[in-house]
What does this fold into?
Amino acid sequence: MLNHQSQLLLLTLTFFPIICCDTSIAQLPVPARPSQPAAQVPSESKPADAQAARLEKLAKYLTNTRWTGQFTVTGKDTPPTPEHYEITQAIKADEGDYWNLVVRIKYGANDTTLPLPPIEIKWAGETPVITVDKVTIPGLGTFDARVLIRGGQYAGTWTHDEVGGHLFGKIEKLEAEPPGTAKPDAKPAVDKRH
It folds into this structure.
């Protein structure tokens, strides 16, 4: 039986195989292949600009969202278990395909907001895929997951050591924060009158 901390981490890593997008993500710009003669090929900054725009759009999409779905455990003849998460912030890391995510995880009597270790999001064409590759956390075990994001839904697989299964669900944008509500990375206002 998993202790509370192991369960929280399992749900966290299970969730972050859980990212989803709406169909607008499928419409993210992709660098076009030049059809012009070599002398007229656009500068190299245009593909970089398109990639930057795609990453910015994904960051905006993921931030302030609610993930509602279910997960199964392979080999157990039980109905899928409900899961519920919120991403309060998504920021692309400077290197590689890694993202820094702040999540709110609610299950049972637990309600916790925490930053996750950097999570890799790869692209399969225009589809973002959460990728956790056999990550071992001392004392907790080894985790692996693949979760694709498409059309306002997520679906994928997860494992924790020898236990694994499927997960699936939908994503919704949370209502905008009321005016004056501080964001997790917001700095306090400075009184310039003094």
